[in-house]
Design a protein that fits this description.
Layout (H helix, E strand, L loop, with lengths): L18 H14 L1 H35 L4 H41 L7 H8 L3 H31 L4 H25 L3 H8 L3 H12 L3 H36 L4 H42 L1 H15 L13 H5 L1
Helix pairs in contact: 1-10, 2-3, 2-10, 3-4, 3-5, 3-7, 3-10, 5-6, 5-7, 5-8, 6-9, 7-8, 9-10
């Protein structure tokens, strides 16, 4: 049954949202403020891509060293492996920081874009920087929750190994754990997917935001789960398509390199560029879907659409979107925190 016409001052109609509304609103978020959204996302993507490019250069360099001096093959491969692992860890550390900061700023931009208001990257940062410690707290708690089964798994594998378990038994345990962990990861991600918007828009602390997300998702878990899973698959597909030309060239250079240090540098640069281009779209898309899904759940469970519509009518009467619109996102949980 189609929804009745609703007030649409910004990137979404102020009524409960369907999947198409959420995806369309996310695209409109990017198009309505490309300088702030894509500019910030490009910087974040570049910072996380540089260490990966360095790792690729080390791998290519080890291959060239092997061709020039087969006697150093094992040493070169070991050095490349250590360097690549280090570069990957650095990339994850940088990603943890910059993507968390980016999510906070983009969510603040989204909060104003719902009303049709514009905001610069600098203004969004000034409004969201006080929420960054709580946002890092949410991401840190999520990391611990995600890592908990891995600690149990490692302990189990050590115990089985000490007990002399056979190879087939170990493989069976690994496969069972992988199936369990995929389900666990997706469940936890869906349950707490609305915590970051709650931190930025409602001003909640880390634990309160996780609880808030759990409550908002309750009663509509499978829909939230499906939208988040679809978004995850969609961004991975788009990222792969956008990065494929660069990956193909890197693979070709790695296989048919001319045997010079230039090849290693070029492959690293190409990988960094390809990763930056693909991730600068992925980051705002994921943040946009999470923010609009959070908005939808509040409209469905708290009649929040009526609050937004009343405010939007007043803003249209005044002819502009006042900064006080940010306070409309606050809830009873905000007052208690």
């Amino acid at each position: 049954m189609p929804h009745p016409l609703a007030l649409r001052p910004g990137i979404i109609a102020l009524r409960p949202l369907g999947l198409g509304d959420i995806l369309d609103g996310t695209i409109k978020l990017i198009r309505s403020n490309p300088k702030a959204v894509l500019g910030l996302s490009a910087i974040a993507a570049l910072l996380t891509s540089i260490p990966l490019g360095v790792g690729q250069a080390l791998i290519t360099g080890s291959g060239l060293t092997t061709l020039e001096d087969p006697a150093r093959s094992a040493q070169a491969q070991f050095e490349a492996m250590v360097g690549t692992m280090g570069a990957t860890l650095v990339s994850y550390a940088v990603q943890f920081i910059v993507v968390t900061l980016l999510t906070g700023v983009l969510t603040r931009i989204l909060g104003r874009a719902v009303f049709g208001g514009g905001i610069t990257a600098s203004e969004a940062w000034q409004l969201s920087k006080s929420r960054m410690p709580a946002l890092f707290g949410v991401v840190g708690l999520m990391t611990l929750i995600m890592a908990a089964p891995l600690v149990v798994f490692v302990a189990l594998m050590v115990g089985l190994s000490a007990a002399g378990a056979g190879g087939e038994g170990m493989i069976g345990v690994i496969l069972l754990f992988l199936l369990f962990y995929i389900g666990y990861y997706l469940f936890v991600r869906a349950r707490f997917s609305l915590a970051s918007p709650a931190v930025v828009l409602e001003g909640l602390g880390p634990i309160a935001a996780l609880r808030r997300s759990w409550r908002l998702v309750t009663g509509d878990f499978w829909r939230v789960f499906g939208i988040m899973l679809l978004t995850l698959l969609l961004v991975q597909f788009v990222s792969g398509i956008m990065g494929f030309p660069f990956t193909a060239v890197v693979t070709a250079l790695g296989s048919f390199g001319a045997g010079s240090a230039t090849t290693a540098v070029v492959t690293g640069v190409l990988l960094a560029i390809g990763s930056t281009i693909s991730m600068m779209v992925v980051y705002p898309f994921e943040a946009g879907v999470a923010g609009l899904l959070y908005t939808d759940r509040r409209m469905r469970s708290e009649a929040f659409d009526l609050v937004l519509q009343t405010a939007a009518i007043e803003q249209q009467r005044q002819g502009w979107v006042h900064a006080s619109a940010d306070e409309l996102w606050h809830s009873d949980d905000s007052a208690r925190s």
